[in-house]
Specification:
A hairpin with a 4-residue loop joins strand 4 and strand 5. A five-stranded mixed beta sheet has the order 3-2-1-4-5. The protein has two helices and five strands. The protein has 73 residues and is an alpha+beta fold. The radius of gyration is 11 Å and the shape is globular.
Length: 73
């Protein structure tokens, strides 16, 4: 299952490259998945690596998404 994330702290992105740059640098994103008990919590790459998984990160005013697969560390 893919968990949906949105940029935190008022950020938005105009390109996939910018999303991936911030994700890979460890910036925070917010879990936006109502089926998850973690809905609304912050997550970054380091957190995601604990359990691994697939994450859909929304950008461009939440109209587009990029999917990242994170292996379990």
């Amino acid at each position: 299952m893919t968990m949906t994330l949105i940029p935190s702290h008022g950020r938005d992105y105009t390109s996939k490259a910018k999303v991936l740059a911030d994700w890979n640098s460890g910036k925070d994103f917010t879990i936006a998945d109502m089926s998850s008990p973690d809905d609304g919590r912050y997550i970054n790459l380091e957190d995601a690596q604990r359990d691994g998984g697939s994450f859909s990160i929304r950008y461009k005013g939440l109209r587009q998404a990029v999917v990242v697969n994170v292996p379990k560390a």
